[in-house]
Specification:
46% of the residues lie in helices and 7% in strands. It has 83 residues and is mostly helical. It has a two-stranded antiparallel sheet with strand order 1-2. Strand 1 and strand 2 form a beta hairpin. It is globular. The model has no long low-confidence stretch (mean pLDDT 91).
Length: 83
C-alpha cells in the first residue's frame, strides 16, 4: 500500500494522448501512477516498470519528482503516447 502525500507537481507537465482520446497533461507523479495503472495501453516494457517505480518513490517524497518525470516521458515514448 502506498503512502502518498498529495500536491507534488512537475515543473512542466507531460502531454500524452491515449488511443483516440484528447491530449491530456499529466502534472505530477500521482497523476502518472493513476494513468500507468489504469489506462496505459501497454502494461509491459522496461520503461513502464521503471516509470511506475520511480513515480511511486517520488510520490512518497523518497526520490526526485523531476527524475520521475523523465522516466514517465520514456514510458510514454515507449508506448507511443507522448504528444
Amino acid at each position: 500500500m502506498r503512502e502518498i502525500t498529495g500536491g507534488q507537481h512537475w515543473k512542466y507537465p507531460v502531454t500524452i494522448r491515449i488511443g483516440y482520446g484528447l491530449p491530456e497533461a499529466i502534472r505530477g507523479p500521482i497523476e502518472a501512477i493513476e494513468c500507468l495503472e489504469q489506462r496505459w495501453p501497454r502494461n509491459a516494457g522496461l520503461y513502464f516498470e521503471l516509470a511506475l517505480r520511480r513515480c511511486d518513490t517520488a510520490a512518497r517524497r523518497a526520490s526526485s519528482i523531476e527524475e520521475a518525470r523523465e522516466m514517465f516521458m520514456s514510458a510514454a515514448i515507449e508506448a507511443y503516447v507522448l504528444v
